[in-house]
Write a structure and sequence with these properties.
This is Sel1 repeat family protein. With 107 residues, the protein is mainly α. The protein has one domain (7-99). 64% of the residues lie in helices and 0% in strands. It has six helices and no strands. The protein has helices at residues 7-12, 17-29, 33-45, 54-66, 72-80, 85-99. Helix 2 crosses helix 3 (33-45), helix 3 runs antiparallel to helix 4 and helix 4 runs antiparallel to helix 5. The longest helix has 15 residues, at 85-99. The chain is globular.
Length: 107
């Protein structure tokens, strides 16, 4: 079952942004493609109390794109314009590392 990414997710977190990110991370660990994208958005914008981290954002958009999320590749490309080649390489390394764990399959 896919994770809910709207008001239902917010109610799960009882209005605490840190809990919402925890829920997204848990859903991502279960292979939820929407959670990968939502984490990319959170890290690229600083939403839900998440610090802006372009490397982590690129990582999550990259994973979402690899799993077929329609908007993720566009977001990743847009974000890449603001990053150095070294940062992009690190983001790609982290994405490969995440995807290398066999239990993380798309839901």
């Amino acid at each position: 079952m896919a994770f809910k990414h709207d008001t239902e997710a917010a109610s799960v977190a009882d209005g605490r942004p840190d809990l919402l990110i925890t829920e997204y991370l848990a859903a991502a660990a279960r292979g939820d493609v929407g959670a990968y994208f939502d984490l990319g958005v959170a890290f690229s914008t600083g939403s839900h109390g998440t610090p802006i981290d372009l490397i982590e954002a690129h990582k999550w958009f990259n994973i979402a794109a690899a799993m077929g999320h329609g908007k993720a590749a566009y977001c990743r490309a847009d974000l890449s314009d603001e990053m150095s080649m070294r940062e992009i390489a690190e983001a790609q390394r982290r994405a490969r590392q995440w995807l290398a764990v066999p239990s993380r399959k798309a839901a």
